[in-house]
Amino acid sequence: MEIPLQITSRNINLTEAIESEIREKAAKLDKLYDRIMRCRVVVESPHRHRYQGKLYNVQIKMTVPGAELIVKREPHEDLYVAIRDSFNAARRKLEEFAERRRGDVKRHEEAPIARISVLFPEKGYGFITTPDNKEIYFHKHSILNRDFNHLKVGMKVRFAEERGERGPQASTVTII
After folding, report:
1. How large a percentage of the chain has pLDDT more than 90?
2. Domain tally for the chain?
3. What's the pLDDT tens digit per position in 81-129?
4. Are residues 50 and 88 in the same domain?
5. Could you tell me the pTM of the whole model?
6. Higher model confidence: residue 174 or residue 146?
7. Strand residues in 15-166 grouped as ranges (E)
8. For tag attachment on the chain, is the N or C end more exposed, with fewer CB atoms within 10 Å?
9. pLDDT interval class at 4 (50, 70, 90)
10. What CATH number does residue 122 fall under?
């Protein structure tokens, strides 16, 4: 970290053991992603609740290039559990940020395009033909964004193919 770790407490005195725990977990975050510029941890104990007893909040703010990542979890009765849960959430958020920066986020391929080639409206099914002249069966229940009765031969569609009992079939068909 470029700026040393900042630990703030509100309505609670932090023991050396608690501060040591926070510093250890923050160091692990710094090893995970070495471009953290600043990390601020706020530990607070809001007012005592009548039925739940004392609760602890742990909020973590990390400044990284181009963003500020903030973690705030639900309060917990055990301070060590609240610290653990917040730092686990911070680790996940930091990993997701690093993946996005590297471009590791999964990209879904677009569904292939075909044209409706044959319709049997009275029987509730039809066929689509792909650009490589492969015929694929589809049923009226696989149409996603229109009523089957409004389909016409020649319409462009996107589809998801699967293996049916009698050959290829479209599990979903979306009119373009």
Report:
1. 59
2. 2
3. 999 999 999 999 999 998 888 876 566 677 889 999 999 999 999 999 9
4. yes
5. 0.58
6. 174
7. 38-44, 57-64, 67-72, 113-120, 125-129, 135-139, 156-164
8. C
9. very high
10. 2.40.50.140
- Number of neighbouring beta carbons within 10 Å of residue 19: 15
Strand 167-175 relative to strand 57-64, pairing: unpaired
Residue 108 lies in a domain: no
- Tell me: do 81 and 46 sit in the same domain: yes
Q: In this structure, is residue 23 part of a structural domain?
A: yes
Distance of CA 137 to the CA centre of its chain: 34
In the beta sheet, which residues pair with residue 139?
125
Question: For residues 5 and 64, what is the distance between their CA atoms, to the nearest angstrom?
Answer: 13
Q: Is residue 156 part of a domain?
A: yes
Q: Are 134 and 102 in contact (CB under 8 A)?
A: no
Antiparallel, parallel or unpaired: β 113-120 and 38-44: unpaired
pLDDT given at position 66 = 87
Residues 58 and 126 occupy one common structural domain:
no
Predicted pLDDT at 27:
94
> Of the residues 58, 83, 102, which one is the last residue of a structural domain?
102
On whether the CB atoms of residues 73 and 86 are closer than 8 A, the answer is: yes
35 residue type, one letter: R
C-alpha span between 47 and 119 (Å, rounded): 68
For residues 56 and 79, what is the distance between their CA atoms, to the nearest angstrom? 6
| 36 and 95 belong to one structural domain | yes
Q: Is residue 74 located within the same domain as residue 46?
A: yes
